[in-house]
Design brief:
alpha/beta; TIM Barrel; Four Helix Bundle (Hemerythrin (Met), subunit A); 3 domains; 8-stranded parallel beta sheet; glycosidase; Alpha-N-acetylglucosaminidase; NAGLU_N
């Protein structure tokens, strides 16, 4: 992809963009708007002539489909696709609506509807159904869901292709519903183990043997159905062993599996190229030794697979696999897990990592990628990574972030620029192996052994908070400024929660009841309610927005209740019994007060009772009691506002005057 910006002779403003594709033209347009007009584009707010040698600029994670996109309507999808084009993205999945094709295939094979319904999960958990991790949980999928998703997918692929993007369609990875064994009793299928604290009630998916003839039958049937419905750009995604241990470590077996997956693709499309997430290699390194990695990758002809080095900013795989043993790969920034809120970045790693990978001996790198599990957080990191996809060398980050702040707020401001420099060197500069799961005590089930460690100097965030507030009079009308003020204030409050937690723990361990009552009282009755009030002042930090978007997809009251339960469970218990508790934690107005706040209130009360009665605190007993609180929130049916209330600047200033250290 190339683009050229040219001003006609004598023209003061007009600019012509000549480009090799729709995506390149959009990226050139944004380059002009950004660097010459001082404009800013944000994925959370409406709002050069030679590229780097790699071909692809990839976007999306398989999990993003559930953590962020699950309830989107066409208007939100259209805005995202336009943002993708302006950001230069030219390769992205189009996974919506695939269950329609799967349902047709299963019915044609002889499965009944109840067997299909028992296999699909609810909407908020489809990402892990598609990767073979889960079945049945929070389902079934109503007929209306299939129809609406089908028509949404038509518009998604049409819009992406009209802008010159390459769409990646899903393919068969080998997982099948239990009903296949009833229809074909001689089929060779084996159950995989449980996934992530789920037992076989909702996990332990059946995996077809790669030599079984039904592997090719099902895989080719599915892909032909999908191509007939949506057309194809010849790139397909499949992940057979996502966070699941294969049945054998024998390299010959692993090679047969990958070869079977690839042959099921080429059976429907002889030009097929397999795009595979490389997450499994770093997630289970004890299993995926060099021999096993090489066998899986070399089961596919060289050049017919592209591997996403999914967590390359922290745990690059290409370095210990000789550049994926010759298969092309895309250097990806994962950055976010579960859609958690929390200021975070590894700016030095992403500023240098792609260029180091490109110059690696015998490098097979063919692009850069953004693969967060959840979006609508930390805009700056994604803006930076998108720009690096067009660069030939690292950026001067301090100069870049100064220009970023000016574009983002629409005017230069010394205090805002200084705030961003502090954030750049602290929260956004995690070094070493950095995993961005928000483990703040604020969003985790309380205990006496909680992690409060930070990778940065907390005082930098407090000072950035002060500086942003001081810029409020000048920049307060900017929507992006108000969003950032909420986010930085939220980060400061998150740090304060850790401080009060440490005071609570010290007071309890030293049997100081007055100090325990004071610290616990401030946390439960003031700091958390004030934080909830702050979050409730901005539309992008509302629990009601998440829940009402789920209900809006429904075509009946029954569907609305099911979708809301899906949405509530995902951000809290993540499973029927807290199987992946708080993995997808969010800091949202309504959630902080009625979920996290109630948990903390119970914790403080139990500690106070323990000191009063002289009985020890038992975590297991507390866990049983607090689970009832957590489960009660999921099922309480309380409606939350989807419209913000209160003035962000005033609330932030009030918090600052009370709590600034």
């Amino acid at each position: 992809d190339t683009y050229l910006l040219r001003s006609p002779p004598g023209a003061a403003v007009a600019v012509a963009v000549r480009a090799s594709s729709g995506v390149a033209a959009a990226a050139g347009l944004y380059r002009y708007l950004r660097d010459f007009c001082g404009c800013h584009l944000s994925c959370t707010q409406p709002a050069a002539s030679r590229p780097l040698p790699p071909r692809y600029r990839y976007y999306q994670n398989a999990c993003t489909q559930s953590y962020s996109y699950v309830w989107w309507d066409w208007a939100r999808w259209e805005r995202e696709i336009d943002w993708m084009a302006l950001s230069g993205i030219n390769l992205a999945p189009a996974f919506v609506g695939q269950e329609v094709a799967w349902q047709r295939v299963y019915r044609s094979l002889g499965l009944n509807q109840s067997e299909i319904d028992a296999y699909f999960t609810g909407p908020a958990f489809l990402a892990w159904n598609r990767m073979g991790n889960l079945h049945g949980w929070a389902g079934p999928l109503p007929p209306a869901w299939h129809l609406k998703q089908l028509y949404l997918q038509y518009r998604i692929v049409e819009r992406m292709r009209s802008l010159g993007m390459i769409t990646v369609l899903p393919a068969f990875a080998g997982h099948v519903p239990q009903g296949v064994l009833r229809v074909f009793p001689r089929v060779n299928a084996t159950r995989l183990g449980g996934w992530s604290h789920f037992d076989c009630t909702y996990s332990c998916t059946y995996l077809l043997d790669p030599e079984d003839p039904m592997f090719q039958v099902i895989g080719t049937l599915f892909l032909k159905e999908l191509i007939k419905e949506f057309g194809t750009d010849h790139i397909y995604s499949a992940d057979t062993f996502n966070e699941m241990t294969p049945l054998s470590s024998d390299p010959a077996y692993l090679s047969r599996v990958s070869n079977a997956v690839f042959r099921s693709m080429t059976g429907a499309d002889p030009e097929a190229l397999w795009l595979m997430q490389g997450w499994l290699f770093q997630h289970q390194p004890d299993f995926w030794q060099p021999a096993q990695v090489r066998a899986l990758l070399r089961g596919v002809p060289l050049g017919r697979m592209i591997v996403l080095d999914l967590f390359a900013e922290s745990k690059p795989v290409y370095q210990w696999t000789e550049s994926f043993y010759g298969q092309p790969f895309i250097w990806c920034m994962l950055h976010n897990f579960g859609g958690n809120h929390g200021l975070f970045g590894t700016v030095e790693a992403i500023n240098h990592g792609p260029f180091a990978a490109r110059s690696f001996p015998n490098s097979t790198m063919v692009g850069t990628g953004l693969v967060p599990e959840g979006i609508e957080q930390n805009d700056m990191v994604y803006e930076l990574m998108n720009e690096l996809g067009w660069r030939q060398e690292p950026l001067d980050l301090p100069s870049w972030v100064t220009r970023y702040a000016e574009r983002r707020y629409g005017a230069p401001n010394a205090a805002a620029a200084s705030a961003w420099h502090l954030l750049l060197r602290s929260v956004y500069n995690c070094t070493g192996v950095c995993v961005n799961h928000n483990r703040s005590p604020l969003v985790r089930r309380p205990s006496l052994h909680m992690d409060t460690e930070l990778w940065y100097n907390a005082s930098d965030v407090y000072e950035a908070w002060r500086l942003l507030l001081s810029a409020g009079a000048e920049l307060g009308s900017s929507p992006t400024f108000r969003y950032d003020l909420v986010d930085v204030t939220r980060q400061a409050a998150q740090q304060l929660v850790s401080d009060y937690y440490l005071s609570i723990r010290r007071a309890f361990q030293s049997h100081a009841l007055p100090e325990l009552l004071t610290a616990g009282g401030v946390l439960v009755y003031d700091l958390l309610p004030e934080l909830d009030s702050l979050l409730s002042s901005h539309s992008l930090f509302l629990l009601g927005r998440w829940l009402e978007s789920a209900r809006a997809v429904a075509t009946s009251d029954r569907e609305a209740e099911q979708y809301e339960l899906n949405a509530r469970n995902q951000v809290t218990l993540w499973g029927p019994s807290g199987n992946i508790l708080d993995y997808a934690n969010k800091q949202l107005g309504g959630l902080v007060l009625d979920y996290y706040g109630v948990r903390w209130s119970l914790f403080v009360s139990v500690l106070v009772e323990s000191l009063n009665s002289g009985t020890p605190f038992h975590q297991d007993q507390f866990n049983q009691a607090v689970f009832q609180v957590e489960r009660g929130f999921v099922y309480n049916k309380k409606r939350y506002p989807a419209v913000p209330a209160g003035d962000t600047l005033e609330i932030s200033r009030k918090l600052f005057l009370k709590y600034y250290p």
